[in-house]
Amino acid sequence: MISILSAINISILTLLGFLHIYWAFGGSWAAEKALPESPEGKPLFAPGIFACIVVAAGLLIFASVFIFHSFISITILPEWFMANSLWFIGTIFILRAIGDFRYVGFMKKIRHSTFASLDTKYYSPLCLYLGISSFIINLGI
Description:
mainly alpha; 4 helices
């Protein structure tokens, strides 16, 4: 079960990482649906190349943590890192699922936009899954 959850997480995080790289280099597919919107329907921010690359790197690093945790034993990584990395990743995704209490997450107040609808149906549940599954994988349940 742990291997299956890890493989799913690796696949999701890798796909999302490469999607951010695609956006960083000018891709536009689904980009307008991935940004929180003001009540007027305007994007709250326009991430540049650097921001997209940083997010992509983070997602790909998270994917590699799952690889090292579940499939490859590497002794050069500190024990404290391996023991705590999935707690850290899980916490990040749980917090993203809860949200900022305004524009993103299950607790958002602005709910009448394309992004908000997609966030409620897909983005926040995906983050909740990634968070919970990170905890389960770390516990070895």
